[in-house]
Amino acid sequence: MQIKNFIRTSLLGGVVVILPVAIFILVFRWLFGFVTDLIQPITNLLLDYFPLPEVFADFVVMVTILAICFMVGILVKTRVGNFIHRGLENRILAVAPGYTMIKETVMQFFGQSKSPFSSVALVRPLENDTLMTGFITEYHKNGTFTVFVPFGLNMTAGHIYHMNPDRVFEVDIPVEKAIRSVLSCGAGSAAILKAYLKEHQTIPIDIKTDVKKAQ
Q1: Second label for 157, Cα 20 to 30 Å away, from 44, 54, 167, 175?
Q2: Dihedral angle at the C-alpha atoms of 134, 199, 115, 112, nearest 10 degrees?
Q3: For the whole model, what pTM was predicted?
Q4: Beta-strand relationship, 145-151 and 132-139
Q5: Distance from C-alpha of 25 to C-alpha of 2, rounded to nearest angstrom
Q6: If one looks up domain 119-214 in CATH, what number appears?
Q7: Chain segment 131-186, per-residue pLDDT in tens
Q8: Which of 146, 123, 145 is nearest to 134 (CA)?
Q9: For residues 170 and 204, what is the distance between their CA atoms, to the nearest angstrom?
Protein backbone atom coordinates (compact mmCIF):
# COMPACT_ATOMS: atom_id res chain seq x y z
CA MET A 1 0.00 0.00 0.00
CA GLN A 2 2.83 2.39 0.89
CA ILE A 3 4.61 1.56 -2.37
CA LYS A 4 1.40 2.24 -4.30
CA ASN A 5 0.95 5.61 -2.59
CA PHE A 6 4.61 6.45 -3.16
CA ILE A 7 4.34 5.71 -6.89
CA ARG A 8 1.08 7.66 -7.22
CA THR A 9 2.28 10.75 -5.34
CA SER A 10 5.63 10.72 -7.17
CA LEU A 11 3.91 10.42 -10.53
CA LEU A 12 1.47 13.23 -9.73
CA GLY A 13 4.34 15.37 -8.41
CA GLY A 14 6.22 14.90 -11.67
CA VAL A 15 3.16 15.72 -13.74
CA VAL A 16 2.57 18.91 -11.72
CA VAL A 17 6.15 20.01 -12.41
CA ILE A 18 6.44 18.98 -16.07
CA LEU A 19 2.93 19.77 -17.39
CA PRO A 20 3.02 23.57 -16.80
CA VAL A 21 6.47 23.75 -18.43
CA ALA A 22 5.30 21.70 -21.42
CA ILE A 23 2.19 23.87 -21.85
CA PHE A 24 4.30 27.03 -21.61
CA ILE A 25 6.65 25.72 -24.32
CA LEU A 26 3.71 24.79 -26.56
CA VAL A 27 2.11 28.23 -26.11
CA PHE A 28 5.44 29.94 -26.80
CA ARG A 29 5.97 27.86 -29.94
CA TRP A 30 2.46 28.67 -31.13
CA LEU A 31 2.94 32.39 -30.45
CA PHE A 32 6.34 32.42 -32.17
CA GLY A 33 4.88 30.59 -35.19
CA PHE A 34 1.94 32.99 -35.30
CA VAL A 35 4.21 36.04 -35.27
CA THR A 36 6.63 34.60 -37.85
CA ASP A 37 3.73 33.76 -40.15
CA LEU A 38 2.58 37.37 -39.94
CA ILE A 39 5.99 38.77 -40.78
CA GLN A 40 6.84 36.08 -43.36
CA PRO A 41 6.46 38.44 -46.36
CA ILE A 42 8.96 40.87 -44.80
CA THR A 43 11.28 37.99 -43.90
CA ASN A 44 11.18 36.71 -47.48
CA LEU A 45 12.01 40.20 -48.72
CA LEU A 46 14.99 40.35 -46.37
CA LEU A 47 16.19 36.90 -47.46
CA ASP A 48 16.10 38.00 -51.11
CA TYR A 49 18.75 40.63 -50.41
CA PHE A 50 20.78 39.00 -47.61
CA PRO A 51 21.78 35.29 -47.39
CA LEU A 52 20.72 34.82 -43.74
CA PRO A 53 19.28 31.83 -41.87
CA GLU A 54 15.50 32.20 -41.76
CA VAL A 55 15.37 32.16 -37.95
CA PHE A 56 17.90 34.99 -37.80
CA ALA A 57 15.95 36.90 -40.45
CA ASP A 58 12.77 36.50 -38.37
CA PHE A 59 14.63 37.83 -35.35
CA VAL A 60 15.91 40.85 -37.31
CA VAL A 61 12.40 41.62 -38.57
CA MET A 62 10.88 41.40 -35.07
CA VAL A 63 13.58 43.66 -33.63
CA THR A 64 12.95 46.12 -36.45
CA ILE A 65 9.20 46.10 -35.74
CA LEU A 66 9.86 46.73 -32.03
CA ALA A 67 12.18 49.59 -32.96
CA ILE A 68 9.46 51.08 -35.17
CA CYS A 69 6.96 50.79 -32.30
CA PHE A 70 9.45 52.55 -30.04
CA MET A 71 9.92 55.38 -32.52
CA VAL A 72 6.16 55.75 -33.02
CA GLY A 73 5.73 55.86 -29.23
CA ILE A 74 8.23 58.71 -29.05
CA LEU A 75 6.57 60.49 -31.97
CA VAL A 76 3.05 60.45 -30.51
CA LYS A 77 4.40 62.05 -27.32
CA THR A 78 5.24 65.18 -29.30
CA ARG A 79 2.60 67.81 -30.00
CA VAL A 80 2.71 67.31 -33.77
CA GLY A 81 2.72 63.51 -33.53
CA ASN A 82 -0.18 63.47 -31.08
CA PHE A 83 -2.16 65.84 -33.34
CA ILE A 84 -1.62 63.56 -36.36
CA HIS A 85 -2.50 60.45 -34.35
CA ARG A 86 -5.70 61.96 -32.93
CA GLY A 87 -6.79 63.21 -36.32
CA LEU A 88 -6.15 59.85 -37.98
CA GLU A 89 -7.89 57.96 -35.18
CA ASN A 90 -10.95 60.20 -34.90
CA ARG A 91 -11.59 60.58 -38.64
CA ILE A 92 -10.68 57.14 -39.98
CA LEU A 93 -9.94 54.44 -37.41
CA ALA A 94 -12.77 55.28 -35.00
CA VAL A 95 -15.38 54.52 -37.67
CA ALA A 96 -13.80 51.16 -38.52
CA PRO A 97 -15.93 48.29 -37.11
CA GLY A 98 -14.41 46.84 -33.95
CA TYR A 99 -11.45 49.23 -33.74
CA THR A 100 -12.57 50.89 -30.49
CA MET A 101 -13.15 47.51 -28.79
CA ILE A 102 -9.75 46.21 -29.92
CA LYS A 103 -8.01 49.37 -28.73
CA GLU A 104 -9.65 49.20 -25.29
CA THR A 105 -8.74 45.52 -24.97
CA VAL A 106 -5.09 46.18 -25.85
CA MET A 107 -4.89 49.13 -23.46
CA GLN A 108 -6.40 47.07 -20.65
CA PHE A 109 -3.92 44.26 -21.33
CA PHE A 110 -0.91 46.58 -21.13
CA GLY A 111 -2.29 48.54 -18.18
CA GLN A 112 -2.74 51.75 -20.16
CA SER A 113 -6.45 52.03 -19.40
CA LYS A 114 -8.17 52.17 -16.05
CA SER A 115 -10.32 49.26 -15.02
CA PRO A 116 -14.07 49.86 -15.38
CA PHE A 117 -14.34 48.77 -11.74
CA SER A 118 -13.70 51.66 -9.37
CA SER A 119 -13.32 49.61 -6.21
CA VAL A 120 -13.93 46.25 -4.57
CA ALA A 121 -16.83 45.60 -2.24
CA LEU A 122 -18.53 42.80 -0.39
CA VAL A 123 -22.26 43.10 -0.98
CA ARG A 124 -25.29 41.58 0.71
CA PRO A 125 -28.02 41.32 -1.95
CA LEU A 126 -30.05 38.69 -0.08
CA GLU A 127 -32.03 38.90 3.15
CA ASN A 128 -29.41 36.97 5.12
CA ASP A 129 -25.70 37.13 6.02
CA THR A 130 -24.49 35.96 2.60
CA LEU A 131 -21.66 38.15 1.28
CA MET A 132 -20.68 38.31 -2.39
CA THR A 133 -17.54 39.72 -3.95
CA GLY A 134 -18.46 42.58 -6.23
CA PHE A 135 -17.04 45.59 -8.02
CA ILE A 136 -18.55 49.06 -7.76
CA THR A 137 -19.08 50.39 -11.27
CA GLU A 138 -20.92 53.60 -10.45
CA TYR A 139 -21.75 55.89 -7.53
CA HIS A 140 -25.10 57.70 -7.66
CA LYS A 141 -26.02 61.11 -6.25
CA ASN A 142 -28.72 59.62 -4.02
CA GLY A 143 -26.09 57.50 -2.24
CA THR A 144 -26.84 54.20 -3.93
CA PHE A 145 -24.34 52.04 -5.81
CA THR A 146 -24.30 50.03 -8.99
CA VAL A 147 -22.35 46.84 -8.32
CA PHE A 148 -21.26 44.10 -10.69
CA VAL A 149 -20.99 40.62 -9.14
CA PRO A 150 -19.16 38.33 -11.60
CA PHE A 151 -19.43 34.58 -11.93
CA GLY A 152 -16.46 32.47 -10.89
CA LEU A 153 -13.92 31.81 -13.68
CA ASN A 154 -15.67 34.34 -15.93
CA MET A 155 -15.34 38.09 -15.40
CA THR A 156 -17.47 38.87 -18.46
CA ALA A 157 -20.68 37.42 -16.98
CA GLY A 158 -22.48 38.09 -13.75
CA HIS A 159 -25.25 40.10 -12.12
CA ILE A 160 -25.71 43.88 -11.90
CA TYR A 161 -27.21 45.17 -8.66
CA HIS A 162 -28.42 48.68 -7.78
CA MET A 163 -28.04 48.71 -4.02
CA ASN A 164 -28.48 50.89 -0.97
CA PRO A 165 -25.30 51.82 0.91
CA ASP A 166 -26.19 49.71 3.96
CA ARG A 167 -25.75 46.59 1.81
CA VAL A 168 -22.46 47.59 0.15
CA PHE A 169 -19.21 47.31 2.10
CA GLU A 170 -16.18 48.70 0.30
CA VAL A 171 -12.86 47.02 1.08
CA ASP A 172 -9.41 48.50 0.65
CA ILE A 173 -7.88 45.92 -1.68
CA PRO A 174 -6.52 46.24 -5.24
CA VAL A 175 -9.06 45.50 -7.96
CA GLU A 176 -6.56 43.23 -9.72
CA LYS A 177 -6.20 41.09 -6.59
CA ALA A 178 -9.97 40.66 -6.30
CA ILE A 179 -10.21 39.76 -9.99
CA ARG A 180 -7.60 37.03 -9.50
CA SER A 181 -9.67 35.67 -6.62
CA VAL A 182 -12.79 35.53 -8.79
CA LEU A 183 -10.93 33.84 -11.66
CA SER A 184 -9.60 31.22 -9.24
CA CYS A 185 -13.08 30.47 -7.84
CA GLY A 186 -12.50 32.25 -4.55
CA ALA A 187 -8.93 31.18 -3.81
CA GLY A 188 -7.22 34.06 -2.06
CA SER A 189 -10.48 35.57 -0.82
CA ALA A 190 -9.16 35.50 2.76
CA ALA A 191 -7.38 38.79 1.97
CA ILE A 192 -10.71 40.35 0.95
CA LEU A 193 -12.41 39.13 4.14
CA LYS A 194 -9.48 40.34 6.23
CA ALA A 195 -9.78 43.81 4.73
CA TYR A 196 -13.53 43.72 5.36
CA LEU A 197 -13.03 42.62 8.98
CA LYS A 198 -10.57 45.48 9.50
CA GLU A 199 -12.96 48.14 8.17
CA HIS A 200 -16.38 46.74 9.12
CA GLN A 201 -17.06 44.99 12.40
CA THR A 202 -20.52 43.65 11.51
CA ILE A 203 -19.31 40.32 10.11
CA PRO A 204 -20.81 36.92 10.97
CA ILE A 205 -18.83 34.93 13.54
CA ASP A 206 -18.41 31.93 11.22
CA ILE A 207 -16.68 34.13 8.62
CA LYS A 208 -14.35 35.49 11.31
CA THR A 209 -13.39 31.91 12.16
CA ASP A 210 -12.73 31.08 8.49
CA VAL A 211 -10.53 34.15 8.07
CA LYS A 212 -8.44 33.24 11.11
CA LYS A 213 -8.02 29.68 9.82
CA ALA A 214 -6.95 30.97 6.39
CA GLN A 215 -4.27 33.12 7.98
Answers
A1: 167
A2: -160
A3: 0.44
A4: antiparallel
A5: 35
A6: 2.30.30
A7: 888 888 888 888 898 988 888 777 778 889 998 988 888 888 888 888 888 878 77
A8: 123
A9: 17
